[in-house]
Amino acid sequence: MIPSSKIQRQLIGIACTQLGIAKQTKEDMLMERFGKTSTCDISRAQAEEFLRELGTKGFKTTRRPGKPNMKRQGVDKGPMLEKIEAYLAEAGRPWAYVHGMAKKMFKRDRVEWCDADQLHRIIAALEYDARRHGRGGMCGEPVQGL
After folding, report:
1. Residue 5 contacts residue 43 (beta carbons within 8 Å)
2. pTM value?
């Protein structure tokens, strides 16, 4: 079994918040469907299935202004940009926020112009910010490099 990814768990959390689903209700839904109470314990395929179910209930991921074209970024950057997008959605911030981070931290005008190491640093900063504001700590995963 390939476990659910952190991005999938974050999207499930965002979807539940957007749909007004309480934590206990989400756990009940997971138990009924997969026999597990935590998104950390389900497989990647089960997480995709659960996200599709939340989609039928009205959850929609939207392309945000300033979002880079992920398909053109290559295999190494695409997943990192998706993770950045999940943090932005959770915090309710626009892509301009991360473009500003790239400019300030690395003198890059757009986040997609950053290399893999720079993207890792931006993700670490977003994770730190999420924890500082009480949004982080998905399944107790530690922040690497902080």
Report:
1. no
2. 0.49
